[in-house]
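Chain A, query sequence.
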Amino acid sequence: MTEEPLYLTLLWHMHQPFYKEPVRGEYLLPWAYLHAVKDYYDMPAIVDATPGVKVVFNLVPSLLEQILDYASGEAVDPYLDLARRPPAELTLADRLFLLENFFSANRRRMIEPYPRYHELYRMAGEGVPGSVASRVTLFTERDLLDLQVWFYLAWTGEAARNRFPCFRDLIRKGEGFDAADKALLLDTQRSLIAGIIPLYRKLREEGKAELSVSPYFHPILPLLCDSRVARIAQPGVNLPGIPFRCPEDAKSQLRHGIESFRRLFGFDPAGVWPSEGALSDEVLGIMAQGGLSWTASDERLLSRTLPGGLGREREALYHPYLFQETDKEIALFFRDQVLSDQIGFTYSDWDPERATADFVARVKEVRRHCPEARVVPVILDGENAWEHYQENGLPFLSRLYAALTQTAGVELATFAEVLERVPERRSIGHIHPGSWINADYGIWIGHPEENKGWEYLARAREAATKGSAEAARLLTGGESTDDTARRACRALYAAQGSDWFWWYGDDHSSAHSGSFDLLFRSHLISVYRLLSLEVPGELHEPIKRQRPAGFVRAPSRLITPSLETAAGDYLEWLCAGLYDLTRQGGAMHPAENVLQSFFYGYDLEFLYFRIDGVQSMEKVLQPGDALSLHLIRGREYRVEMRPGAGEGELQQLEEGRWLPCGALARYAVGRSAELRVPLNGLGLDAGDRLTCYLTLSRVGNPLGRWPAEAPLPIAYAGPGLGVDGGASEGS
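Chain A, predicted structure.
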């Protein structure tokens, strides 16, 4: 009797926010275009070039709309407009814009490998904030033309370079580009973008890919259904003053997504990846009633759903599940967080052969420890990881796909195929409400900025319902031929996208957070203007609060990160405080801008710190180097970290000498430098404040200090941090 294979399903989620500003109709940010020429083409092209591979591509309809807009040549993109303009016609403001924005690329993988681009980067001040104003006069028209070309050339994917020879020709030329070179680059990129959707369609027709969908504008569906569900997932959360309870909107977002998908590809999708993996019982019912066959989320939702969790070997994770709603049902898959995060956050710094071997070994371990396992779901973003990989991930993905097709007992399959081949379904009548992050919705609701956004959204929806009978009909699930009402409802749905709330609050930071704030408010303003209603004055004021230079967020919850590998796990530090060290005025030698981010947090026993560099910290620290964290609370303390992992004494400054004070700190230096310091060694009480700074020395000689001037303030809130759902304000 032949042993049943263990199926492995790789789902790549393709998504960008809807960057098109509704009033002027222009794209405020260029990321849909840039990821299109780098990732949305490369990912299917790699599958196309690899025999035997099968994957699932999840395509968000609002992203596909933007791809079509760029492919048609109708997209109004200020970045592209400035790239096309002859350097002689650029104003001073235009030139500053180029220098401030046309190095928006991964320095190690997308700038440093290209000598001319790296030279221009150094000329512009190497990313040090505020430096371009004094350097703009250094750039000749020849320099500016080379910069225009290199920004877009660096963003081309590796598979795209293999299929479009002009990209490699331009890379070989390297500098001294002319207007014809630039026109060839941008025209070819447009042709590439025009081929993206046909390429996904081809893979589906050949049986190499299943295509699935998400709600149209990528909203958090459970919060649209009822924002109060957040309190089930996170009992202490502070909710908006106006509850949002509009399941009709969730149904519309899903229905419009499916209709758009059908128009583009000619068939109805079988599966749906809910935005951010966010599910609830009500959402599962809507999906089942909508005719979808499967959906998916994160393993933590399943762990908190099942009374016994996942089990010792996490065996419960590796099966299809079934949720029934009256006469309808929908299958569920839950992603293996470890395997997914290895690709998303760890393997980028590994040799492709080593990373592939590690992944395959982990899959084999599942088969060995869980003989009843039927499917291993690996689900992650299909675009964001690759800029950290060698050659945009092509060497890794090619090896991974090839290795998986040759691994005995393991078979690549789409989710639709798994459902055909595995008849068993484990039934669940209820799911823990939450998302792929922390099994709750804390990223999108609960912070004062997020709650304000939800209240603005609720008021705009109420105004539309009361101010227009046609809009009210559409918003309650009816039909209307009134184009103005349709556009107003579309603007309201666009404002429900998850990305605006992602950048509110203290969870994430971006140099473009003001643009995300503006886009959210612009969509709401459009609702009022289209329906000839008075626009509330509050929508003209930013929601996103401005912070001091470098300060990103304060800690929002207790954290206990692992220091085993110093891999800088994204989720472990999500609720930590954060400073951007590149905005601090830097080191003693500003050109040596080696440190990037400083995270801090605590639990009941330790203070935790993580330092990220512009490249892996194990490459920053050489033998003989010491990276020291200095803490000041009345007295000054320090801990020295050296390459590798180990323990360091907490030292205290006494009369100019560093003396041990009886406490041991533990550290690990890998991709990041991570450190934990015993609370009792510092004698901290809830409400205490301390300051800190970092120094780097080489064989005893100081190389730099961050910040160069005043140390970073840190507030220690104590063991009660986050228990009432609030985040500590400020530092």
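The chain has 27 helices and 22 strands. The longest strand covers residues 657-669.
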